[in-house]
Structures are given as C-alpha cells and as structure tokens.
Specification:
The structure holds three protein chains of three kinds. Chain A is mainly α. Chain A has one domain: Ferritin (Up-down Bundle), CATH 1.20.1260. Chain A is built from nine helices and no strands. In chain A, helix 1 packs antiparallel against helix 2, helix 2 packs antiparallel against helix 6 and helix 5 packs across helix 7. The longest helix of chain A is centred in the first third of the chain and has 29 residues. Helices cover 65% and strands 2% of the residues of chain B. Chain B has a two-stranded antiparallel sheet. Chain B starts with 13 loop residues before the first helix and ends with a helix. The longest helix of chain C has 12 residues. By secondary structure, chain C is α+β, with helices and mostly antiparallel strands. The N and C termini of chain C lie far apart (53 Å). Chain C has two helices and three strands, in the order E-E-H-E-H. The chains are: A mainly alpha, B mainly alpha, C alpha+beta. At the A-B interface, helix 1, helix 2, helix 3, helix 6 and helix 7 of A face helix 4, helix 5, helix 8, helix 13 and helix 14 of B.
Chain lengths: 241, 351, 94
C-alpha cells in the first residue's frame, strides 16, 4: 500500500464505520431531538467517508470506487481505528466515543486543510467545520451527563473509562502520511481536559493501549458490523442500486 | 392573489404546486376583509365566520371543544405515525446497498423525526403537552397509521414505501395544507415540501431495481405486490363507514372524503407503475371512460380493522421498540434536566 | 417534560437582510440545547443564517379579544406606509 492511499483509506474507514455505528441510534435515541442530531452527525461522517474513499480509490489506481471499497473488502482489509468499531453501548459510551473521535478529527482535518495535497486539503476544509460541531455536541452532552444526576455521572465516567484506552491508537501515524497525528496530541489533550474538568470526570489511568486497526487487525465487533452493512450488496454481484 | 382556491385538479407543478398554491391561498385569505369586526360577544358565530371565509383559526381564538379535541386526535396520530414510521425504513439504513442510498435513506428517516416534532408542536398549541401525547401513544390509547405495522422484508420495500406510502400520505396531506387550523396548516406545508423528495427517492429506487438484474426486478414486483393494498387502506374505511368525516369536512379540517382521495391516488399510480414496468396486483384495474377514472379492487377492510386493533404483523414490535427507546432514554433526559437546574441555581447565586 | 424540558419558540433569519421569523417550537432542558436542537430541526435544508430561541413562557401575547384595541388604531395611519406619498415624476432614489 502506498503512503497517501493507506492514510486516506484509514481516514475514510474511520468516518465510514463511525457513520454506521451512529446511524444505529436512529429510532433509538434518548429523546426525539437527539435522534435528529445523531443522524446529522452520522450523515456528516458518511459524507466525509464518501469523499475520502473515492479519493483513496483514485490514489490506488485499481479502479475501485467508494462502494467497491466499502462493500467488497473484508474486515482484515479495513484500516479504521478500533475506537469507531466498538459497539455503541449506552448513550454515555457513544458520547465518550464521539468526544474522542471529534477531538481527534478536528485538529487532523484542520491540519489537512493546509497540506500540499489539494484534494485532501479541500476535504479537510469541509470536514473540519463538521468536526467542530460534533465536538461541540459531544462536549455538551459529556458535561450534562457528567454533572447531571448520580446515575448519569456514574455512566459517563464508565463510558470514558471504557473508551479511553482506544485513544492511543489514533496518534500512531501510518508511514508517508501528509500529517503526523502525533503532532495533534497536544491539541487533543487540552480540549478533552477542559471538557472533562467541567463535567467533573477524570481520565482513567490505564497502561492498556489496544491497537492494530491501522494494520487490519480489529476487534471481534468489526466483522459483524461489516456482515450487516455488506450483506445486500454482496448478494447481488455487479448490480446497480 | 385571489381565485386560486383548490379545484380538485392538479395545479401546475403537480402536488408540490398544490402545496405552493395552498400557501398562497393561506396568505390571500388572511388579507381578505371579512367585513366584520373582532370576536365580540358571539364567539361561536365569529368562529363560523372565520371558517366560512377560509381563514385560519389560531391557538388563542375561541373554538368549539369538539373542534379542539378532533384536531388534537388527528394531529397527534399524524405525529405518532411519523415517529413510528421511522422504524420500517430505519430497518434498512445499516444494510443500504450503496453509500449514496445509505445517505439518502438516513436523511429521509431523519426528516420523519423532524416531521413528528413539527406536528407535536402544532398539537401543543391546542393546550396539550407532548409528554401527554407520547404517553397516549405508549399506552396504546392513541393510534398511528396502520401501514407501519407491515414489515420491510427487502430493500425494494424501502422503494415501495417511498413511492406508495409517502405518495398516499402526500395525497392525504396536500389538502391538509388548507386545514382551517393555522398551526396544522403551516406544519403541513412544511412537511409536504420536504416529503416530495421522499416520494421521488422511493420511485427512483424502484425504477433502478425494475431496470436491473432479474432478481432485482423480481424484488421490486414483490414489494409492489405486498404494499399495494395496504397503501390503498391508508385512506381509511370507505366513506359510508367513516365516523368522523362529515363534521371534519364542515370544519374544514378535512377537505375530501376517503374514497375521493383513494381514487385520486389510484389514478396517479397507474401511469407511474407503467413507467416502472411493474404490474399493479389488481386484475380488475381498468379505465372507466364514463367516470374518467380507474375502476379498482378495494383493499381488504377487515384486514385493516384487524391491523388497527393491534393485530397487524408488526404492531407489537413497533410499540415495544418505541417504549424501549423511551424507557432507556429516561436517565439521559433526567440528567439534562438536573444539569439545567444546577446551572439555573448557579446563575441565581451569581446574581 | 413540561417542567424539566420546557417549550421554546424558534426564530430563524433566512438570509442576511431579513428579520428573524417564527418557524415553530421545540422542547429542550436549557437554552444551549434548545439552540442546537433548533439548528438540527429547523435548518436541515440551509433555511437559516441565524437562530433565536426564546422560552415560550417568556412570551407575553396579546389576546384575540384585545385584537381590535391593539391593532385597529394602526389601520388609519396610512401615512406610515410609503405608498401613501405621491412621488413627483422624474424623482429618483426616493
């Protein structure tokens, strides 16, 4: 895999799998207004995924379009981080995941907006505005749940504890990436620390740092997610929809 | 602009044109001088005058109690239908066969949540809270459209729902854009404008399938076979058996009878099915020159009554799903309320 | 919900240069959430460039019974409308 292709594919896969998980909330959100909000964020992630996967296909030069990449790869060929494939859990877990993802995507897309690759720069410029909104939304809920009732505080802290080990993987760069994610860690930490402080939450102290997603070694969850996502497309090879 | 009142014929631009015409008529009627002063002493006479002049009743106007109750029931059921109606299509978001279709379907189901909220807000102007309405739904004391108690078994069902179910809903709803109650009419104008995209996306899904592989075409025909009669049943029982119709017509809540709207829908669909190359599952469907309309087989109203009374294929699942989401979300709603209360206290202390 | 998630009225400025117009209402526990919900509910199709949310309980409305007293006195003040004035031919920019 060439560097720019692997990098673009990884970002596209992050966005696609995040969209698939967020869309699972449709008809299940804690409040009808939140159903709409989560669908909006899912649509943003899906939109970014389509741009990134289409471009990845061009970089690869093997004639694969967004749908070929989304529907016809097996889990070992996906390059998304483990964070996004984790099950939604309760609303607190989902908000913990969204906080981590958006606090990472915002500085990443912002950096991409200024990179030399024009296509990636354009995608970054568009997606960073959306990420800012996702971060705002996650922060707003993490604060409300963290500093809401006893139960919500307990659940929100549990959500952060469960999700946070998966954050480390976000900052390991694939070789040849136009932006080194390691340089974004400072931004990420500052953002998250401010939100958690206001939410009366703490970061877990854990030495566990699971990874492997960027090399195609995933959790057990991804294969199920893909089985569902791909079932119809794969049942009708070559069909148009 | 005067003289643009609904004639029963398609305004330019089809259904969407009718919505725009309804919006213009709403403005025109508002400007029309009824030649009468304000409410004065005889509130009932004033109410009748406003209705006669095709003007809108607004939330703080006096209205007969039965008018208020009828509207609450109708608007609430409409809102519930939007919210429950998210489930059958939502069922296919995770498996949509292309990323483009996934995005469109997600946006569509999201719109339905929005429409539910517009409608709950319209109902609330009549003096009932959304909490109460949601309770009425969850306790099974208010209904939603029976169509959503049928399962979506294949991807083509998503297309059939868009084309037939949304199509039938639009035929029902376009006249509601002229309903005499202002907040409902305005909500319907907004809903209808957004729904025209829903119907088109459904039709497009079926068109692609019907022109695809033999398996895809068979999938499309199967969906039409299963959704045709339930869609016809969406217009309600035949006029002779419809209990609420006459009074609702007089109050201009309802503008056309169930059978008139059903006929209109059938007449629209025949040509559209031909373009798809699919067969409407009705051997007796044929043009009647005398009536200038299609003769068709009526849906099974006994089945409709069964589904309304709770015995459709998915009634239990749909309600259980909604109740589960509501119950599981309780701790989140409580947390948000507790946080808001804390912030308010902080503000008070600071002041 | 009525207490814990009160009703908010939503006003949207459709484009620069236009006034905020009432578009509907929604429920939210606080102003911050109300504003976000309004954005998602009422501007999904780029319907606005600016949003106000106002607690419905904070609005004092005229009653329909007072309508004449409130609004009729304005009916004879045609001079408030620019079309009241005759503009001599040939005058521009007025």
């Amino acid at each position: 895999m060439n560097g720019p292709f692997a990098f673009t594919l990884a970002l596209g896969d992050d966005a696609l799998i995040a969209a698939q998980r967020l869309a699972e909330w449709t008809t299940r959100a804690p409040e009808m207004e939140e159903d709409i909000a989560l669908a909006n964020i899912a649509l943003d992630q899906l939109g970014a995924a389509r741009l990134l996967l289409s471009y990845a296909g061009e970089l690869e030069g093997a004639g694969r379009d967004e749908d070929a990449l989304a529907y016809l790869r097996d889990d070992r060929e996906f390059r998304n981080c483990l964070l996004v494939e984790l099950p939604n859990g309760d609303f607190a877990v989902t908000m913990a995941k969204l906080l981590a993802l958006s606090a990472y995507q915002l500085p990443l897309y912002t950096a991409l907006a200024g990179c030399a690759d024009e296509r990636l720069a354009a995608i970054g410029a568009k997606a960073r505005k959306e990420s800012a909104y996702h971060l705002d939304h996650a922060a707003l809920w993490v604060k409300r749940l963290g500093d809401g009732t006893e139960e919500s505080h307990r659940r929100m802290q549990a959500g952060i504890d469960q999700v946070w080990p998966y954050v480390h993987e976000l900052f390991a760069a694939p070789p040849g990436a136009p932006v080194d994610p390691a340089t974004l860690r400072g931004d990420f930490d500052t953002t998250v620390a401010a939100v958690l402080a206001e939410a009366t939450l703490t970061l877990p102290d854990s030495g566990w740092a699971p990874g492997g997603g960027r090399d195609g070694v995933h959790t057990e969850h991804l294969s199920y997610l893909l089985a569902e996502m791909q079932v119809l497309a794969r049942a009708h090879p070559g069909a148009r929809w | 602009m005067y003289g643009n009142d609904f004639s029963g014929e398609d305004a330019p631009g089809g259904l969407l044109g009718e919505v725009e015409a309804a919006e213009a008529a709403l403005r025109a009627a508002a400007e029309r001088d009824r030649g009468a002063a304000g409410p004065g002493e005889d509130l009932a006479a004033y109410f009748a005058q406003v209705i006669d002049a095709d003007q809108k009743i607004e939330p703080r106007d006096w209205m007969p109690e039965a008018y208020r109750r009828t509207l609450i029931r109708q608007i609430a059921q409409h809102a519930h239908s939007e919210i429950i109606g998210m489930q059958p299509e939502g069922n296919w978001i995770s498996r949509a066969p292309s990323l483009k279709r996934k995005a469109i379907l997600l946006a569509k189901v999201q719109d339905e949540a929005g429409h539910g909220l517009y409608l709950y807000a319209a109902a609330e102007t009549l003096g009932i809270s959304r909490d109460e309405l949601v309770d009425l739904l969850l306790n099974g004391r208010q209904k939603y459209s029976s169509i959503f108690n049928y399962p979506t078994l294949t991807w083509a069902d998503v297309g059939a729902i868009g084309w037939l179910v949304d199509g039938a809903a639009i035929v029902n709803q376009v006249p509601l854009c002229r309903c005499s109650y202002g907040p409902y009419a305005r909500a319907m104008i907004r809903v209808c404008k957004e729904e025209s995209f829903h119907q088109r996306q459904g039709y497009e899904i079926l068109h692609v399938l019907a022109h695809g592989t033999p398996a895809q075409k068979a999938m499309a025909q199967d969906a039409l076979d299963r959704w045709w009669y339930p869609s016809l049943a969406m217009f309600g029982p035949p006029d002779g058996d419809s209990t609420h119709s006459a009074q609702s017509m007089a109050w201009k809540i309802k503008r056309f009878s169930n059978d008139e709207l059903r006929q209109r829908f059938v007449d629209m669909c025949v040509g559209q099915a031909e373009v798809l190359g699919l067969t409407i599952p009705d051997p007796d469907l044929r043009w009647n020159d005398e009536r200038q309309a299609y003769d068709f087989t009526q849906p099974d109203y006994a089945e409709l009554m069964q589904v309304i009374s709770g015995n459709g294929p998915c009634n239990r699942e749909r309600m259980a799903h909604r109740r589960h989401a509501h119950t599981e979300g309780a701790w989140v709603r409580e947390a948000a309320a507790a946080y808001a209360a804390k912030q308010k206290n902080k503000e008070k202390v600071a002041a | 919900m009525s207490d814990s998630s009160p009703l908010w009225e939503v006003f949207v400025r459709a484009r620069r240069g236009l006034a905020h117009t009432h578009v509907g209402s929604l429920h939210a526990p606080d102003a911050e959430l109300a504003l976000r919900n309004a954005r998602d509910l009422y501007t999904r199709r780029q319907e606005g460039v600016s949003i106000w949310v106002v607690p419905a309980s904070g609005i004092t409305a005229s009653s329909p019974d007072e309508k004449d007293a409130f609004f009729d006195p304005a009916a004879d003040k045609v001079y408030r409308h620019p079309t009241f004035y005759e503009v001599p031919e040939g005058v521009a920019h007025l």
